[in-house]
Specification:
mainly alpha
């Protein structure tokens, strides 16, 4: 990325053994850690950079490439 900030479109938050419904405290702690880490990194960026990152993310979602398969 142009900012040097690692951007991940999706991240899997690890679930406690048996599922989040069996150990909601551990599940919420894991979620808090992941979301908090992202918010902490993003909060260091100015508004313009955050907006550009968001636009870049959505532009990549709709990107495709035509290839010639020789038909």
């Amino acid at each position: 990325s142009f900012t040097g900030i690692e951007t991940r479109p999706n991240e899997i938050v690890p679930e406690p053994v048996g599922g989040a419904h069996r150990d909601p405290e551990s599940a919420s702690s894991a979620l808090r850690g992941v979301v908090g880490g992202h918010l902490e990194r993003l909060s260091r960026l100015d508004v313009s950079t955050r907006l550009n990152l968001r636009l870049e993310k959505f532009r990549r979602m709709g990107a495709f490439e035509n290839i010639d398969i020789g038909r």
